[in-house]
Amino acid sequence: MFGFSDETYVDVASGKGGNGCVSFRRERCVPKGGPDGGDGGRGGDVVFVVKDNLRTLSHLKTIRSFKAEGGQNGSGARCYGRAGADIEIPVPRGTVIKDPDTGAIIKDLTDTDRFVFLEGGRGGLGNYHFRTATRQTPRFAQPGEPSQAARVGLELLIIADIGFVGFPNAGKSSLINMLTNARSEVAPYPFTTRIPVLGMMRYADQDIVLADIPGIIEGASEGSGMGFKFLRHISRTRGLAYLVDLSDPNCLDAYDILHKEVAAYSEELVTGKQECIIGTKLDEPGALERFELLKAKYADKTVLPLSIYMEDKLLAIQQAFMAMVNHKPDSGFAKPLGMDADFADEHWSQT
Known about the structure:
Rossmann fold; 6-stranded mixed beta sheet; Spo0b-associated Gtp-binding Protein, Chain: A
């Protein structure tokens, strides 16, 4: 996802309608043929087209101005002018069109494949339409309607089912690489993930999308680190997975800090979503003891262990993710579809 861009603005304009024609029929043996001016063509529309093969708005960083073709003028013999071609602006699914001044949402393109944003001007009527019994030689026609122009902001909100939240180097990239075919960069230093990474996890006969975003740190709400630049990409997720590094002696406070920082960005992210806690790097010295303390501290939550060297722990994490995705608001924390509930409870309790 080189050149990742999740927000930009564009200037757009629809096409002007073509003018109607003032013309009179002039043929041999047809004296006083009367008016025969044709209508102007309709101007082209500005259309946003959703492309599922796009993952970023970077293609709109270099071309920021889009104008549809204007309609052609009418001509004699009641010939209509050609309609102007539409201008299509390709965007990835999940793009939101906003007013650049107020930030108000104009259109959410998540569930739309094609959206006509600005319509082209209508073509003017030729003088043929203005003939009457008392006005048999109208020497005027209707001009085409003018075009419409606007500047709009485009913002990409990545569509994912589960979003990963954690401090830098907490193991988010390792987890998404283990569960999906994503190849997020993994390195022994912070902020290896600088852009959101998506991966598709298949479990039984269901696919869910996981989102790995750059790590946040304490003070992110005040602009520390990368701040909240990418938190909007998990605003549409059904659940959040908080990853806690068990090799950190202060890991027992990590969830509370992360929860507080996310709440500072949006209360809906902490009150309206399912969540689980994943203790990573279980193979590190002292990690197992810290995991037991973490699980005891958050006994009312789903707390799961993880190590890149213990793939048997992945099943419980997959089940937890499926439970969050299939959760019904009035049914508590749902067990994964198609799995035995007793087996899931037993497996979740194992360390």
